[in-house]
Amino acid sequence: FCDCFNIPIVTFVDVPGFLPGTNQEYGGIIRHGAKLLYAFAEATVPKITVITRKAYGGAYDVMSSKHLRGDTNYAWPTAEVAVMGAKGAVQILFRGESEELRRQHESDYIDALANPFPAAIRGFVDDIIEPSSTRQRIWQDLRMLRNKSITNPAKKHGNIPL
User: Fold this and answer.
1) CA-based Rg of the chain, rounded to a whole angstrom?
2) For residue 66, what is the DSSP state?
3) What CA–CA distance (Å, rounded) separates 144 from 158?
4) Burial of 70 (0-12, 13-18, 19+ CB in 10 A)
5) Number of C-beta neighbours around residue 96 at 10 A
6) CA 22 to CA 35: how far, in whole Å?
7) Which residues of 36-51 are buried (b: 16+ CB within 10 A; e: fewer)?
8) 99-113 and 86-93 helices cross at what angle (nearest 10)?
9) Residues 45, 7: contact at Cβ < 8 Å?
């Protein structure tokens, strides 16, 4: 829809990931997630993303990340960009250890990864901005990208996941 009428896509991300479980699978979370992924990947309009809080795992990738040709990606200083939350990661990586050691590992994980700086260093986030400057940055980017022109490879039709 946005591509048809050249409407820019501005995405505010706060997603703790795809919740695993049979209820979600029966509800079609994989199918719906695939449609969202396809829509963001195929869109040729300006795509601006602001990570406000949590951006975990595959759900983050689907939400117009740099991996899906997002034009500009910002994160607030309170944002967390990681594969998964600290508690879940520690439960998987250190499941045989004592509760005290797991708490220490969780604290270390939070200090090291529960902030936007590792993602910015790797180029997944263009800039870390204060929430008060968000509107101005979006406006500047919309002006910069107003004449954006990108074409997808020539093909007869897409293969949208239904």
Assistant:
1) 18
2) G
3) 29
4) buried
5) 7
6) 19
7) ebbbbeebebbbbbbb
8) 130
9) yes
CB 21 within 8 A of CB 64: no
Q: Which two tokens stand for residue 4?
A: 């048809």
Residue 15: both structure tokens together: 């997603």
**Mean pLDDT by groups of 10 residues along the chain of 162 residues:** 86 79 72 82 90 85 82 93 83 86 88 87 93 97 90 69 66
Give the amino acid at 150.
Answer: I
Inter-CA distances, 14 with 35, 60, 77, 141, Å: 19, 8, 13, 21
**Which residues make Cβ contacts (< 8 Å) with residue 53, sequence separation at least 6?**
14, 76, 78, 79, 80
- For 18-146, where are the E strands, in sequence order? 47-56, 72-75, 80-82, 127-128
Question: What is the overall mean pLDDT for the chain?
Answer: 85
Among residues 119, 113, 127, which one has the least CA distance to residue 48? 127
Prediction pTM value: 0.82
Polymer length of the chain? 162
CA triplet 79, 89, 32: central angle to 5 degrees? 70
Backbone angles phi, psi at 48, to 5 degrees: -120, 130
